[in-house]
Amino acid sequence: SQKIEQNSEALNIQEGKTATLTCNYTNYSPAYLQWYRQDPGRGPVFLLLIRENEKEKRKERLKVTFDTTLKQSLFHITASQPADSATYLCALVRGRTGRRALTFGSGTRLQVQP
Amino acid sequence: ETGVTQTPRHLVMGMTNKKSLKCEQHLGHNAMYWYKQSAKKPLELMFVYNFKEQTENNSVPSRFSPECPNSSHLFLHLHTLQPEDSALYLCASAGLAGGRNEQFFGPGTRLTVL
């Protein structure tokens, strides 16, 4: 069966350190992989998208890698700040033509300590 | 207003009530989605509308009835719900060009079924 796995345990790090979150998937061949941020009681907010033929994508303090051989994406936040504390969701875009559906992981909660 | 709006933000209803959730997007998108988010579980896609036509129904019970009168508005009609239907209901929209399927979420409706 198709699965997307994110670490359900919360990740606690000190301010200024790099946070690394993992998204593993099985039985998918996604065309794109996306990362979202969700704050409590709010809808997710899109952060980054990476294509299957891209190894790495950066946006300010964020970096995403995508290894289609390992079926894994890593999401890094450098110089982390308490304001980065949130739940981070990965999502796979299934399908290569026409309508493309999105499947989400359950998310990993990040807590950045001051 | 900009982005995706949802009303009401909170709803408490009995199992015999009938209520409706409303979603409106001001982004010019042509796809709209309903998701259910329960504690500790991934976002569950419920319904997808492309150009006002329903294109996906993920085995959702008939006590949930979607309606999409135009590409900017989406409703979810609720009747005879069960306590296990209590969750955060999220609406999202996306432009379909390019296949990125980047989702723009509303703030959600927190539903409690007594």
Please describe what this structure looks like.
The complex is a heterodimer of chains A (114) and B (114). Chain A has no helices and 11 strands. Chain A is mainly beta and 114 residues long. In chain A, strands 2, 4, 5, 9, 10 and 11 form a 6-stranded mixed beta sheet that branches. In chain A, strands 1-3-8-7-6 form a 5-stranded antiparallel beta sheet, with no helix packed on it. In chain A, a hairpin with a 4-residue loop joins strand 7 and strand 8 (72-77). Chain A starts with a strand and ends with a strand. Helices cover 0% and strands 56% of the residues of chain B. Chain B is globular. Chains A and B meet through strand 4, strand 5, strand 9 and strand 10 of A and strand 5, strand 9 and strand 10 of B.
Residue runs with pLDDT of under 50 for 5 or more positions of chain B:
none
Overall spatial form of chain A: globular
Strand proportion of chain B: over 45%
Counting DSSP H or I runs of 4 or more residues, the number of helices of chain B is: 0
Q: Cα distance, first to last residue of chain A?
A: 41 Å
Total helices of chain A: the number is 0
Give the quaternary arrangement of the chains: heterodimer
Strand percentage of chain A: over 45%
Helical content of chain B, roughly? Answer: under 10%
Number of beta-strand segments of chain A: 11
Q: Would you list the SSEs of chain A in sequence order as H and E?
A: EEEEEEEEEEE
**Largest sheet entry of chain B:** 7 strands, mixed
* Global mean pLDDT of chain B: 91
Main sheet specs of chain A: 6 strands, mixed
Low-confidence stretches of chain A: none
| Average pLDDT reading of chain A | 90
Number of strands of chain B: 11
Radius of gyration of chain A using CA atoms only = 14 Å
- Helicity range of the residues of chain A? under 10%
Described by the principal axes of the CA atoms, the overall outline of chain B is globular
Quick rundown:
The complex is a heterodimer of chains A (114) and B (114). With 114 residues, chain A is mainly β. Chain A has strands spanning 3-6, 11-14, 19-26, 32-38, 45-51, 56-59, 62-67, 72-77, 86-94, 101-104, 108-113.
